[in-house]
Amino acid sequence: MEREDIHRHYSWQFKAGRVVDNSVPDSWLSAISSLCTNVDVLIQGELREGFHWLDIKEKHGMLSVSYAAPGALTDAIDALVDAADTACRQDGGQPISQRTY
Predict the structure, then answer these.
(1) How confident is the model over 51-83, as pLDDT tens digits?
(2) DSSP string spanning 19-70?
């Protein structure tokens, strides 16, 4: 899946205008797509209004993920980010080590 496909398919998650940064290696895009899929399943209805990605980028050789979300969802979203971290490691990518809300 390409960056544009991720942005188009999960447009509600990128409503703030931020996109997956070009600094993210292509080998990470599968894990990012899975992360967005899992967030799509997790967050339904009016809760979607309170979620969006602030940043998904490579920083110092690592994936940096920032998002805005209702506080009640952060633990579940963090678990999904951790699963994406595992996928990046299995694909030989760098771990997701920076996360901000």
Answers:
(1) 999 999 877 766 788 999 999 999 999 999 888
(2) -B-TTS-GGGHHHHHHHHHHHHHHS-GGGGGG-EEEEEEEETTEEEEEEE--
